[in-house]
From TrEMBL:
GO biological process per UniProt: xylan catabolic process
Residues in the signal sequence: none
Span of domain Glycosyl hydrolase family 67 C-terminal: 420-643
Gene3D superfamilies with a match to the protein in the record: Alpha-glucuronidase, C-terminal domain (3.90.1330.10), Glycosidases (3.20.20.80)
Organism: Streptomyces pactum
Pfam families given in the database record: Glyco_hydro_67C, Glyco_hydro_67M
Domain Glycosyl hydrolase family 67 catalytic: 110-417
Molecular functions per Gene Ontology: alpha-glucuronidase activity; xylan alpha-1,2-glucuronosidase activity
InterPro entries: A-glucoronidase_C_sf, GH, Glyco_hydro_67_C, Glyco_hydro_67_cat
Ranges that cross the membrane: none
Taxonomic classification: Bacteria, Bacillati, Actinomycetota, Actinomycetes, Kitasatosporales
One GO cellular component term: extracellular region
Name of the protein: Alpha-glucuronidase
Cited PANTHER family: ALPHA-GLUCURONIDASE A (PTHR39207:SF1)
Length: 646
């Protein structure tokens, strides 16, 4: 099967490939750089030149620090990239590729580039064996797994290599290769099946990507035959130390472990009366001698709560569990926190845990796989959503201070010929990488980069069309789904399509509390669950009152009457009607724009997207009609514009 070049089509290398290039230095990543330049030269007529020859482009490694930064300057007709580490040189090459012909025009003042965030990671929720409910990839919408097929590693690593190359080109440097829900077969990747992981690591290494593994906290019991997994038990500590040492024998640059513990039924330290810090530090101690890191997920909440119990609020859970542990985590333990307090809904506030643990290393997790945002059947470019979250500052400042040590996305990639099921979902993956490199970047500029790289020869009409269908697609999706931050009106289990009361009487803790008078969850400190007070000022004050709470999040923080007037001047009920009609119209318009691009897009790709637009429009209408009918029936308030509501 042909591998879709995604944002690295041969033509993206035209400018580099037509030049005389000198690559200076040695090492595995320099070899990768040489290989890239040589392939481009072969295609576009340039050549690799020796030391004494005149060069248009010099790519020079000046040390062996492993550093990821690079500098770029152009003077006297030569563009020079210098880096003190192999990764930096590779990123420098891709920088020149992005610049294209601009890299070789006039003079360029020296610019230094380095990633703002050290750890830029993709987590795959891939199962090795097909899971009876979740399949090969949990929440995967792009076919099977890149790494595993039906119980074993895929023999052919060509796609894994191509994946590593794409990831390096957008700045990602770490991948976790298996699901955080570690089932029986997957548990053994840590021990007797580590060779399969080593092969994957070998394919990703030339692109500066370190491989990580999700492990089960119960491993000493299920794999080691011990009677306990108690983190303070010496036998358990010795078992983890030994198992981890053997991992490093197989993979010298192994990145570390990802752990989902005491979360949605996974084993964890609670069973032994221990804390999450005890649990994380156990694995951190095993990894420390080898330079590895444990990513301990903070997605811990009661998924067996009683919907009648109004005092338990899932949104509070991560903060309540983890803030008391601030300062107790080891230096090589990173707490991995979902960007919102719930679970990747189309609109959530930023988790109050971010910023509340100054003495703990933190990674923020987003979801590129579109579990709640259209499952790669709908176009939903998440750049603006992630950018809003990454620019959020707990103290109310904009873009100042430390947000996180790592950024992690749940990958949206599978063995699909277009990588991501929906070809346009590639833009999410690219955007994530670039925002992880620079969280302050303008996502729309990143979208422009993605378009320019993916379709280097795109006429203006194609560029404008792609922008038109992608740019506002997150807001469009938000408009026709759950309103004003309330979230979770999806069909239970698979989470696709509308079901307003789908989770309303369930144990998962995700409710909207709609009745005949109003809708929303009171999370204020004064009369609600107190969640709003988990934020520092000014956010705690802003969210506390419906008068100051941003419209977008009103129903997340407050239960209000349908006649409540938003800052926009509309009532809540009219907003619900209007946005649902608009959302469908916008999806229909995007379908029309795409249809007009037939002559400019590869036919297979055009057809795939066109098909998915049919489904998106169908599904958007279903959302509109169910949500609007539900609220008309509950409230009895007619649409002031008299449109048909069923
Ligand atoms: C991998 C949500 C998803 C689960 C996922 C979980 C998590 O609940 O629906 O599929 O499990 O998040 O992030 O651990």
């Amino acid at each position: 099967m042909d591998i879709d070049p995604a944002w690295l089509p041969p033509a993206a290398f035209r400018a580099v490939g037509g030049r005389r290039t000198l690559v200076r230095g040695a090492g595995p990543l320099v070899d990768t750089v040489r290989g890239e330049v040589a392939a481009a030269c072969e295609r576009f007529g340039g050549r690799m030149v020796p030391e004494e020859a005149r060069a248009d482009l010099v790519l020079e490694l000046t040390g062996d620090t492993g550093d990821e930064g690079f500098a770029c300057v152009r003077a006297d007709g030569t563009t020079t990239v210098t880096a003190s580490g192999g990764p930096g040189l590779l990123y420098g090459l891709f920088h020149v590729v992005r610049l294209g012909e601009d890299a070789f025009r006039g003079e360029r003042a020296r610019e230094e580039h380095r990633p703002a965030v050290a750890l830029r990671m993709l987590d795959h929720w891939d199962n090795v064996a097909v899971h009876p409910v979740m399949g090969q990839v949990e929440r995967g919408y792009a076919g099977g797994s890149l790494f595993w097929s039906d119980g074993r590693a895929r023999g052919d690593l060509e796609r894994v290599r191509a994946y590593g190359r794409l990831l390096a080109a957008c700045g990602i440097n770490a991948v976790a290769v298996n699901n955080v829900n570690v089932h029986e077969t997957e548990a053994r990747l840590l021990t007797d099946r580590i060779g399969e992981v080593a092969d994957i690591a070998g394919a990703l290494r030339p692109y500066g990507i370190r491989t990580h593994l999700s492990v089960t906290f119960a491993a000493p019991v299920v794999l080691g035959g011990l009677p306990t997994a108690d983190p303070l038990d010496e036998r358990v500590r010795a078992w983890w130390a030994g198992a981890t040492a053997r991992v490093y024998e197989a993979i010298g640059d192994f990145g570390g472990f990802v752990v989902k513990a005491d979360s949605e039924g996974r084993p964890g330290p609670f069973a032994y009366g221990r804390t999450h810090a005890d649990g994380a530090n156990l694995l951190a101690a095993a990894l420390a001698p080898h330079g590895g890191t444990v990513h301990w997920r903070a997605f811990v909440y009661d998924h067996r709560q009683d919907w009648r119990d109004r005092t338990t609020d899932r949104a509070r859970a991560a903060y309540d569990h983890f803030v008391p542990l601030d300062g107790e985590f080891a230096a090589n333990a990173v707490l991995q926190v979902k960007h919102g307090p719930m679970d990747f809904q189309v609109r959530e506030p930023v988790s109050p845990l971010i910023g509340a643990m100054p003495r703990t290393r933190l990674a923020v997790e987003v979801q590129a796989t579109q579990e709640y945002t259209g499952q790669q059947r709908h176009v939903c470019w998440l750049g603006p959503m992630w950018s809003e979250a990454l620019r959020f500052r707990p103290d109310g400042e904009v873009s100042a201070g430390r947000l996180a040590d790592g950024l992690v996305a749940v990958s949206n990639v599978g063995d699909d010929p277009f990588w991501t099921g929906h070809p346009l979902a590639q833009a999410n993956l690219y955007t994530f990488g670039r925002l992880a490199w620079d969280p302050a970047a303008d996502p729309r500029a990143v979208l422009g980069e993605w378009i320019a790289l993916t379709r280097p020869e795109a006429p203006a009409r194609l560029e404008a069309g792609l922008r038109a269908v992608l740019d506002g697609s997150w807001r469009t999706y938000e408009k026709y789904t759950a309103p004003l931050g309330v979230g979770f009106m999806v069909q239970p289990g698979h989470h696709y399509g509308p079901s307003v009361d789908g989770y309303e009487y369930s144990p998962w803790g995700t409710y909207h509390f709609a009745d005949r008078d109003g809708v929303g969850v009171d999370r204020s400190a004064a009369t609600g669950t107190g969640y709003a007070s988990q934020y520092a000022k000014p956010w705690s004050e802003l969210y506390e009152s419906p008068d100051t709470c941003p419209d977008d999040l009103l129903l997340f923080f407050h239960h209000v009457p349908y006649g409540h007037v938003l800052h926009s001047g509309k009532t809540v009920i009219q907003h619900i009607y209007d946005t649902h009609f608009e959302g469908v119209e916008e999806a229909e318009e995007a379908r029309r724009v795409w249809a007009g691009l037939t002559d400019l897009v590869d036919p297979a790709q055009h057809a795939r997207v066109a098909d998915r637009y049919e489904e998106q429009v169908r599904c958007a209408r279903e959302w509109r009609d169910q949500v609007n009918s539900y609220f008309l029936r509950k409230s009895g308030v007619p649409d002031e514009r008299g449109r048909t509501i069923h």
